[in-house]
Amino acid sequence: MDYLEFFDLKEDPFRLTPDPYYFYPSESHNEALSSFNYIVEQKEGFFMCVGDLGTGKTTLLNTFLNTEKWKDRAGIALVLTPRLSPEEFLLTILEDLNVKVKNTNKNEIIKAFRDFLIENSMIGRRIIIIVDEAQNLPNETLEELRLLSNLETEKEKLLQIVLIGQPELRDRLLSDSLKQLNQRITVRATLRPLTINETSDYINYRLVKAGKGTVIFEEKTKKLIHKLSKGIPRLINLVSSRAMMAAYLDMSRYVRKRHVMYAVKHVSDSFIKTTRRIVTFPRIIVYSLMVCLIVAALIVMNRMKEHDPASLSNKRQASIVERRAPDAENTTYNAQRTTHNAVVAVDAANVRAKPSLNSETIGSVSKETVLEIIDEFTETTGKKWYKVKMPDGKEGWIADKTVKIANGS
Ligand SMILES: Nc1ncnc2c1ncn2[C@@H]1O[C@H](COP(=O)(O)OP(=O)(O)O)[C@@H](O)[C@H]1O
Ligand SMILES: [Mg+2]
User: Fold this and answer.
1) Ligand 1 center to 23 CA (angstroms)
2) Domain assignment of residue 239, given as a range
């Protein structure tokens, strides 16, 4: 007998798929779904929904797509891999919406798209562009979206745009370069983690949807799951599913706290591991240990700095935490490169806060400006960046395509 049979369930109630069948309308999920429907109904221009990883953004999106009301009354372009240039993005949308364009001249494309939007508007059909993981859209593509949102008649917007992403999307839109786009967003929603009561309801709700069965999560078990998962649905699912498995191995219909603790030991998720430590030890001990570790690390780093002439370069490399660690070859190259300069080879080159086209522009340098190279970084795509010191002393990243390398003095 497998565990589903044992609990008399149709399927695993806690599968990690963004399945609209299981959509639980917590307060914030419900608000977000209403806002989503509202902007389409009212032909508002822009909607942005943010939430941390695993809070249910894609589930919300799928729930909207599953809404009977819009199934035949809307044309939807859905972008799930948003690392696209403005041109790629535009062509992807047109392809999704089945808009035929005769040539690739940008003005012609926009004209064809506008005609398509007007035709649809006349028959009351909504056209919606939805981007999931929109925090990955390059700035240039976000700007293109803003231009598209200008397509309107005197009476109404012709297009609804929905951006769904992690909270860094909201933060990026606060930068100067994206200020205009930020002002266009008329409706916003944030998906919050579930409260303790919602977590308990959520677990029951998913169990009922999976066939109810005979399994029972005790109230104190659900409280512990909430504490460990911090109310994030993805983590609630992970722990609940494994805890049920542990109860099954115990031949118990009741999922108890000990099953949750067993589950946590077997969930390979660093977040869960972190929370487990906090639960196991009193908080004060954890914080004291952390302070000791930080102090010890600082002492070791200082010692290394005194003894290792290359440590400065290594430290700079380590600061690019969001990207892959540079390889050994790269690090050596850095140490030798400190005497090289980059000379700007285009009329105006952007300098960015991080080595990525997605990163905010912090300055612009004109042709022939000589910049001291202090670091470099290669993206997994092979695109290379130099960290440079600008004439005003600020430091930032410049794409290697926009500069020539020269020997420094
Ligand atoms: N409101 C909800 N109702 C039901 N399940 C949810 C809800 N929110 C999240 N989940 C579950 O949590 C997991 C992660 O959700 P997902 O939509 O992929 O999160 P995100 O896109 O924000 O990273 C999925 O297994 C999903 O079923
Ligand atoms: Mg998602």
Assistant:
1) 8
2) 3-12+195-280
